[in-house]
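> call design_seq(struct)
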């Protein structure tokens, strides 16, 4: 059974940190590009960060660049999102996403159940 289990969310104050985890089972994790996507209350989904399956190169959305770090452990079948200097506008449900492609064609895509991160004083 394919599963992505997100965890690590919580309630923190502005300037604090959170470390999100996503543990994958049931598919060849090392072959998948991994991303984090968030959805704030009343807003649409927003891509946050991605890490590629091959060379592990990373990309970040402008609002989080310099504050968030995505990483992966293929042996652990896990992807992390280290979030530092958190701001109230970072409040959202954070979802892990896994994709594998053949060129530009999406072959398989999986989603985690989400973990709530709330930044409030």
């Amino acid at each position: 059974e394919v599963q992505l289990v997100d965890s690590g969310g919580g309630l923190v104050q502005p300037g604090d940190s959170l470390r999100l985890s996503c543990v994958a089972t049931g598919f060849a994790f090392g072959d998948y590009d991994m991303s984090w996507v968030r959805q704030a209350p009343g807003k649409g989904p927003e891509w946050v960060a991605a890490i590629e399956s091959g060379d592990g190169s990373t990309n970040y959305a402008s609002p989080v660049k310099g504050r968030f770090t995505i990483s992966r452990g293929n042996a652990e079948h896990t992807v992390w999102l280290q979030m530092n200097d958190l701001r109230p506008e970072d409040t959202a449900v954070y979802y892990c996403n896994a994709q594998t492609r053949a060129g530009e064609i999406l072959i398989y895509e999986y989603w985690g159940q989400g973990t709530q991160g709330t930044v409030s004083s």
